[in-house]
Amino acid sequence: MESTNDPTTERIAFRTCPLCEAGCGLELSIKNEQVVRIRGDKDDVFSHGFVCPKGTTLGHLHSDPDWLRQPHVKRDGEFVAVDWDEAFAVIEAGLMPVLAEHGRDAAALYLGNPGAHSLAPLIYNGQLIKALGSRNRFSASTVDQRPKEISSAMMFGSVAIPVPDLDRTDYLLMLGANPYASNGSLCTAPDFPGRLEAIQARGGKVVCVDPRRSETAAKADQHVEIRPGTDAHLLAAIAHTLLARGWADPSNLADHCTGIDDLEELFAPYSPEAVASICGIATEEITTLARELAEAPTAAVYGRIGTCTQEFGTLASWLVDVVNLLTGNLDSVGGAMFAKGAAGQPSTKGAPGEGRGFAMGRVVSRVSSSPESLGEFSVAVLAEEMETPGDGQIRALITVGGNPVSSTPNSQRLDAAIAGLDFVVSVDPYINETTRHADVILPPPTPLQKSHYDVALLNLAVRNVANYSAPVFELEDTQMSEGEIMQRLIALLSGQPFADFDASELDEMVTAAMLASSARDPHSKVADREPAEMAEQLSDSTGADRVLEIMLRTGPYGDGFGADPDGLTLERLVDEPHGIDLGALEPGRIPDLLRTPSGKVEVVPEPLRADLARLTASLERAWDDEFVLIGRRHVRSNNSWMHNIRVLTKGRNRCTMQIHPDDAQRIGLGEGGDATVTSRVGSVTVAAEITDGIRPGVVSIPHGFGQDMPGVQLSIATAYRGVNTNVLTDETFVDELSGNIALNGVPVSVAPA
Fold it and tell me: Which fold has domain 155-350+589-616?
């Protein structure tokens, strides 16, 4: 149906869904400037019409009355709507004196998960970090994925994360993942469930390792019911068995690896017999998993949030790739492969096969000496850095798309710490558990009012594609683009009075710097070109779109500003609303993608070798806690983002505590009865759901609920039944190497309320 300027005539718009990592294409029907229908875009080159329940609600999200449409400042304890100039004037008057008196480290920056799904934050967060000039930087990554980022960076020299080649594998072993509910994570794959079923349809096998019979485990060919927190033990035992039985064959990469010969000795303590009782998995079953991985024509091991959010998260993440390597399935068709995104991938820049590698712990946190990784501290130390007096105490906070009071451990402690700060600025559309403490809230437009390109996620895709989405709706008079919000904040923190801000000047500075950097790289498509000559070829794009255009044109598929007339440009993507297919993942990316000083895969990085001692010591532990807590996901939920959409929250109560019938009978708990769950740091009361689909000794509560704190202005989410599991999670229970929170395996007690 053709577009028209008549708002009463139905028009069609296409865009990529920004709500999760799957990146599904959507077809939107618009009439009277309202979304009247959303369905999957059957012509999308990646998703082919697949859509989940969340994607169909973008129209509801766009029209949510609780989504702020202009800045709000707090006066006498109440939020008041103001214009943008006044909002930035309040920030200038309130935040800058704190920095002037106490130094830049007196402010902390927290970057939330939504920033990974939004173009402007992905483009400008780095500049925001630089402008703030504080070492106190935090993000949702240390709640979620930091172990995988670290293990990959240690092995390959940059954060190059292999993804399972779902469309060509014969055997998939999944740990800590439930893609039937989450649509996948650190693995961008629209219709992940359909791709799993296709493995089975072509005669392959899907194995799901999970303490709970999740939606994915119920559909798998085999469900391995593991004890929470022991994925590293299981993977080490599989590696041990592959080596001890002579089943290991890493010959496809042997010439490009260092440290393979050390593995047999390192994994000697982890025989199936040694770990069986710890994992709660029979010796024979562990051996069979190793044999099946070795014998399958192609196979891939995939671990996700359950393997990261545990006390041995970095080891478990590393062992996923070690097992893929030992079975000859790393960087191989049907195994674990490396995407080559069109923009934003470090492993496609600079000299192929060499680099400075990865280092962490260059600085440590002030109070508990927690090491930095990837320029951030763990959110586990955020509260103590706010509470503890002295030089460098955090007195102010900037959040960008983050809700740490809901999403980080011991949330009650962090909530109290934020309440005591001198000044808080939040770039966020809602008054939620965190932003209710803000002095100024700067709301970005809705997803349908801004352009979209998955800079980060397409570098984790199971097929190389590129999709760009133009805004569906224009901004209202009271709104400001997300890019300009970020630019103005950057300028203000850099010492430029907000009244003197000129977005076009900043665009020109960023453009010149990016083009000059690309021209200086002798391995770039535009090496030795004149930046001014390339700038003349740019389209009329501005802000984040202009940065994206430069990234695309200088990227691995780009036109090189005319060097390759058939190459990728932003204009081409605009003209292809269903996306451009760049081809299947290619084997043999190693050694060129490596950025290690040795030019080889560092199979046994020294920090991981040292951390193995902690895992080995745990073999002697008594693994008999009465109860441990794990989380879970629902396909109609996305962290705490989507709970204010009535169509997604209606129906049965999904925030329940799942418990095994034997455990429920033992403690006298009935179906639907209220249970009190208590950890070292807190207690919640939640309705019980008795099911044999969970391992005895384990209870499961979904995360992201419990948005009923005083001051929260989320009319639907606040009224929903549910509790915040981060009242129970413990900021001292972490993966020691990465500092990542251990959300799974948290010791708790359970009793009838």
Answer: Dimethylsulfoxide Reductase; domain 2 (3.40.228)
